[in-house]
Amino acid sequence: MIDRRSAAFVRLRQLADRPGGRRITPLFAADPHRAARFSVALDDLTLDFSKSSLDDAALDALFGLADAAGLDDFRRRMFAGAMVNTTERRAAMHMALRAPGDAGLRAELGGVSEDAGHLAAVERARMRDFVAAVHAGDKTGATGARFTHVLSIGIGGSDLGPLVATEALTLGRVDTPMEARFLSNVDGHAFLHATHGLDPARTLVLIASKTFTTLETMTNAQAARAWVAGALGEAAVPLHFGALSTNLPAVAAFGVTPDHTFGFRDWVGGRYSLWSPVGLSIALAAGWDKFQAMLDGAWAMDRHFRDTPLRQNLPVLLALVGIWHTNALGCANQCVLAYDDRLRRLPAHLQQVEMESNGKRVTLAGVPTEWDTCPVLFGEPGTNAQHSFIQMVHQGTRVIPVDFILAANPDHDRPEAHRVLAANAFAQAEALMVGKSEASIRAEMAAKGASQSDIDAIAPHRVAPGERPSNTILFKRLDAFSLGRLIALYEHKVAVQGCLWDIDSFDQWGVELGKALAGGILPQLTPGAAAGSHDRSPRGSHDGSPRGSHDASTHGLIARFRALRGES
Ligand code: F6P
């Protein structure tokens, strides 16, 4: 007996397969009020999802799926701090990081409930005082020099969120209290780049790691420790290091002092942690008031998501449009084009938020899903994307839905540049939808005197099929509040989609195998190490245990790597 959720997915595919079910322009022709009816706003933030093939029947079917999936109850449980991260028996209570401490937000960890809002508020107050002391020069480096730079060492959620927020709030500005550098990759070149030109005496190093065990981060942390101690002596380390983590014993063992240690709890997922002490670099670089305003913006979106009826709910509607594209139309990709260079790393952050959250293949019950889950997310700033991959989005064989993101007012004094930027954003969305027919191309070429042979040869190549979907997210200005609100919009979109796909959006078991295998290979790359054997058995799924034996390809590559390094 097919359950209601499965039936809802079947219904969505049936609606998409109606004649013209994937077209957009006829929907506008049929309804002069479509743009308004398929837009939703929260204050100055508008989500226009009208350039999609969604009609009322499809929208009703999507809300039918939401009902079958128990979205209302999921939302209630999430804000109640229930263990919506079922496989790790944890709440997903990143909302408590940005809510007022007395908002009453609690979180369950392993069945034990704690006052998340209060715990977050206490640590936030410590962060605020720390930032004030650093900015006032009350807290300095070992030589007494003020800190001018913060080097944040972390990877994944301990890097991308702080990076995108810091860039959004400081790029191109001259009024920032400090400069933040971010070091994530274990590649030694990244260390050289991140520390290039830095004076250790004026650099505060933050180790951002929820677990404080991530190999890349701990490797870089040791390198930074040697860099500081080498320049200023071992005694300088406690003054120049801070740590942001849930693993306080490991932090202490590294030598970070308690007053430079800021903790958070396991009900914060790494990719949802920029609001936590992991975001200390944001506050140091942009100022505490902007960090707090960013929290306020996210909390505004939290309340909207929690309290607004589903049909007027921005995260819900953004999620449902995505479900339509993924599960009804079969789109395997989604593109995010922020027409704001300060958001140049937003796609990278959203890749983790979306693809590490919903890149799953089994339901909460542990059985393979009957439906596709997260599409591949990619993106670059507009207008740059127009000169790299937008060709494929217009004329490729795959339909790739696009989210256009634009602030109406810039923070520079070149209004003409902003008008060009905005014109391009609107034009790309329109072009994807309306396209350009072969008939109009032929007429245009003929009017310009092209020969019939040229027209016959070229016109088919110039056709833009159109009927390609996009959302436009438009708001007044990119500031700390609107940035927090925007990121929280996507966070909750992801949670809604995870609920509808019946998957755990808050674990990430898929990253473990690669880490385990790397642990087995690393010793074989050490000079003088015995080369491993290669396992002649056909490669089934590796049991994940680090062993000397590998498939023939990996074994061969290791041998080649060593030979190229003269370590055969
Ligand atoms: O391996 C993936 C991951 O666990 C991400 O979820 C996380 O953001 C990143 O690694 C860094 O983890 P940590 O903050 O514990 O160093």
Reconstruct the topology from this structure.
Layout lengths: L3 H13 L8 H6 L3 H4 L1 E4 L2 E4 L7 H13 L2 H9 L27 E3 L2 E3 L1 H21 L12 E5 L6 H11 L8 E5 L4 H8 L7 E6 L6 H18 L4 H4 E5 L2 H7 L6 E3 L16 H7 L1 H20 L6 H15 L4 E6 L7 H13 L17 E3 L11 H6 L6 E8 L5 H20 L3 H10 L4 H11 L7 E8 L2 H22 L10 H10 L30 H13 L4
Parallel strand pairs: 5-6, 5-7, 7-8, 8-9, 10-11, 10-12, 12-13
Antiparallel strand pairs: 1-2, 2-13, 3-4
This protein binds 6-O-phosphono-beta-D-fructofuranose.
Question: How would you characterize the overall build of this protein?
Answer:
The protein is an alpha/beta fold. Helices cover 46% and strands 11% of the residues. It has 22 helices and 13 strands. The protein has helices at residues 4-16, 25-30, 34-37, 56-68, 71-79, 116-136, 160-170, 188-195, 215-232, 237-240, 248-254, 280-286, 288-307, 314-328, 346-358, 390-395, 415-434, 438-447, 452-462, 480-501, 512-521, 552-564, and strands at residues 39-42, 45-48, 107-109, 112-114, 149-153, 179-183, 203-208, 241-245, 261-263, 333-338, 376-378, 402-409, 470-477. Strands 1-2-13-12-10-11 form a six-stranded mixed β-sheet, sandwiched between helices. A five-stranded parallel β-sheet has the order 6-5-7-8-9, sandwiched between helices. It has a two-stranded antiparallel sheet with strand order 3-4. Helix 1 (4-16) runs antiparallel to helix 4 (56-68) and helix 12 crosses helix 13 (288-307). The site of 6-O-phosphono-beta-D-fructofuranose has 14 residues, from loops.
